[in-house]
Specification:
Rossmann fold, 6-stranded antiparallel β-sheet, alpha+beta, 256 residues, 2 domains, Tumour Suppressor Smad4, 39% strand
């Protein structure tokens, strides 16, 4: 007989998520995340990302249930049959982006991003950037509100809102997408191999300061930002077969 998995439940502060947490604890018991076989995140996509950043290094699969505003990375909430749903779930293995940001003060900050790394202007002045790919200058000057690099899992989020492409899981591709590009006016970004190393130089940072954000971790007054896929880090998300992440990404492209 197969042992019951130890499920650690994590919930956002939303009232619905807290109520669900109490119900699930009563049925399945309370297990610490450090000793669990599976993590169950209750909330929205923002809470899922916080869970991955906090517990991703443990290598424990995460099954999310939507009890928040946005739930692209979550399954439908249904407290009954949870053990069976987890056993039948399809895994999605994700590699995050690694951002290394150098500030005007000389500090170097490293952070992971499961959705995207974005560079944004901090003032009313348009940002001026130089873009290097694998140590080769590909765009001498981009004048814009910002630019972002998105993973396939994150391509339906901020990237899609900025008119970037939706990327299939397993495509081994990342998206480089400008935000309100002014010059070159018709530049729409690029699709790049996932192992591409991107380096952004902030031109005229005194007059045109920029911040860099890896998911929700912001670094202000950056002068240089390097982005690459991290092969050392990986997380596994679990999805119900009828709503697996690959199917959601495909379906998102056929929404009118």
């Amino acid at each position: 007989m197969t042992a019951m998995p130890r499920i650690a439940f994590l919930a956002s502060r939303a009232p619905d998520a807290q109520a669900a947490l109490a119900v699930l604890h009563a049925v399945h018991g309370v297990h610490e995340p450090e000793r669990a076989d599976v993590l169950c995140a209750l909330g929205g996509d923002g809470f899922m990302l916080r869970t991955l950043h906090r517990y991703g290094p443990r290598g424990v699969p995460v099954y999310g249930m939507k009890l928040g505003t946005v739930g692209f990375l979550m399954n439908h909430f249904e407290p009954e049959g949870l053990v069976e749903r987890i056993a039948a779930a399809h895994p999605a293995h994700l590699h995050p982006l690694e951002m290394k940001a150098v500030t005007e003060a000389g500090a170097s900050v490293t952070s992971l991003a499961y959705n995207e790394v974005s560079l944004l202007r901090q003032t009313r002045q348009a940002a001026h950037l130089r873009i290097h790919l694998n140590d080769r200058v590909r765009l001498e000057e981009l004048v814009c509100d910002g630019v972002l690099v998105a993973t396939p899992a994150g391509s339906t989020a901020y990237n899609f809102s900025a008119h970037g492409p939706i990327l299939p899981l397993g495509s081994n591709v990342i998206a480089l997408t400008p935000i309100a590009a002014f010059r070159p006016r018709r530049w729409r970004g690029a699709l790049l191999r996932a192992d591409t190393v991107l380096r952004f130089e902030v031109l005229d940072p005194d007059k045109r300061p920029m911040s860099a954000t890896a998911d929700s971790h912001e670094v202000r007054d950056v002068v240089e930002v390097t982005v690459r896929e991290s092969r050392e880090h990986a997380v596994t998300l679990l999805f119900d077969p009828e709503h697996n992440l690959e199917e959601r990404i495909i379906a998102e492209q056929f929404v009118g």
